[in-house]
Structures are given as structure tokens and as C-alpha cells.
Specification:
Layout (H helix, E strand, L loop, with lengths): L1 H23 L5 H23 L12 H18 L3 H4 L8 H22 L6 H7 L2 H18 L14 H16 E4 L2 E4 L1 H21 L3 H16 L6
Antiparallel strand pairs: 1-2
């Protein structure tokens, strides 16, 4: 029950942030905002469902492989049902601003490694390294930098994104990414962890800029995945 209530609350937060963004950008449509909020709530629900219902877990292990796969499947469903083209979802190779995108990607990976040295994570096993190097980067970037901004901007039925950087969409999805990592619900009580929320807010906004600066999800996925792996690998340095 907590999972469903959290997902509904998460959708409500997404809708509230969309309405704030709409006040500054009149081009944002209300229908797009509703679909955007519903998608993020559904993504949270399907991602967490295998942890709540063990019978639908497709894979074993310590990490939520199944939830990330379900998240990717949901993205495919939305892409297909709403006719979101590849450029609108970022599922293309980078086609502009390569130099700045590469430099920012390298900076993000370096920042993640620096945070690893500061926070000193425990030595990770092979499953943890494989998971961190793949699933969060793919599933979360497709959801938060691919599908969610496309929905918020109304880029359905084969519409293409405009050439400018859509800062309202980047900021709102970055904030939702931060809330998703910081907010939790246990036995009906909400709590908020500021540390992961702060770091993921910085990362989320920068990943969003990378996606639209380069026109592609490739750099956000690389920055996210390599950054997660670099953070974990710092535990082995000097060991």
C-alpha cells in the first residue's frame, strides 16, 4: 500500500512542479502535464513493484534488476502508444555540440570519483559493479531525460523538439529526479534525505542539459553509468 501511495504522491508533486513551470512558459499544455505526471508515477510504481511483490521478480541478486527492466518496458510502451520519435526521446546518436558535451561528461565522471573518495564506499561485489555500470544509467536516463521531458513538452505524435534548450523541462525533471532519490515513505510516514537529493539534483539538471545540448541520451547515460562505477571503484584505490 505504501508503494501505491508513494507513486500517487510522486505524481502529484510532478504535477505541481509542472504547473509552476507552466506559469513561466505558457506554451506548456495542461494535457501534456497530466501525462507527464502520470508517467513519472507509473515509472516509480513499476520500478519498485518487484521489491514489494517478490513473485514478479525476473532476476535474483541484491539489486533491483527487474524494476529497471520494467521501467524500460514502460518507456517503450509510452514511446509506441504516443508515437514519440527517436529525436524527441533522445534515442539518437549525438548530432551537435560534441566538444562541450564531452567535456561536461568527463567533469561529471571526475566529480563522481571525487565524491567516492570523500564518502569512502565499501568495496562492492561484482553484481554491484555490474548493476551500477548499467541499469541506473540506462533506465533512469531514458525515463528522466528521455520520455519525461518529451511528454512535458508535448513531443508526441512524431513532433520534434525545438532547437533551444528547454530549461523548464530540464529543471522540473531534475527536481523530480532529486525528489525520487531523497523522498521515502515507510509505514505511512514520509522522510527526506537531503544528501542524495542534493547530489542528484545537480546531476539531474546537468544530465538534462547534456541531453538537449547534444540532442542525445548517449552522454547522460555515459556520465551517469561511468560516474556510478567510478564512485564504487574508489573503494579499491590504495587497498
Amino acid at each position: 500500500m505504501d508503494s501505491l501511495f508513494f507513486s500517487l504522491s510522486f505524481s502529484a508533486i510532478a504535477l505541481c512542479l509542472f504547473l509552476i513551470a507552466k506559469a513561466f512558459d505558457k506554451k506548456l499544455g495542461m494535457a501534456a502535464g497530466l501525462i507527464f505526471a502520470a508517467y513519472l508515477g507509473l515509472d516509480d510504481l513499476v520500478t519498485g513493484l518487484p521489491s514489494a511483490v517478490s513473485s514478479i521478480r525476473l532476476f535474483g541478486g541484491e539489486w533491483n534488476w527487474s524494476g529497471k527492466v520494467f521501467s524500460l518496458v514502460l518507456a517503450v510502451v509510452f514511446i509506441t502508444a504516443l508515437k514519440i520519435n527517436r529525436r524527441s526521446s533522445g534515442l539518437v546518436l549525438p548530432y551537435k555540440n560534441q566538444t562541450s558535451s564531452v567535456l561536461v561528461t568527463l567533469c561529471l565522471i571526475t566529480l563522481s570519483a571525487t565524491l567516492g573518495f570523500l564518502f569512502s564506499p565499501e568495496k562492492a561485489n561484482l553484481e554491484t559493479l555490474l548493476f551500477q555500470a548499467t541499469m541506473p544509467g540506462f533506465a533512469e536516463e531514458v525515463a528522466y531525460r528521455g520520455i519525461a521531458p518529451a511528454l512535458m513538452l508535448g513531443l508526441i505524435k512524431h513532433k520534434f523538439p525545438e532547437g533551444n534548450i528547454p530549461w523548464p523541462a530540464i529543471l522540473v525533471t531534475g527536481l523530480m529526479f532529486s525528489v525520487w532519490h531523497g523522498l521515502s515513505l515507510t509505514q505511512g510516514n514520509f522522510s527526506f534525505n537531503l544528501i542524495p537529493a542534493s547530489f542528484t539534483l545537480i546531476g539531474g539538471i546537468t544530465y538534462g542539459w547534456l541531453r538537449f545540448n547534444s540532442g542525445s541520451l548517449l552522454y547522460p547515460i555515459v556520465a551517469h553509468s561511468a560516474g556510478n562505477l567510478a564512485f564504487q571503484l574508489t573503494a579499491f584505490v590504495g587497498a
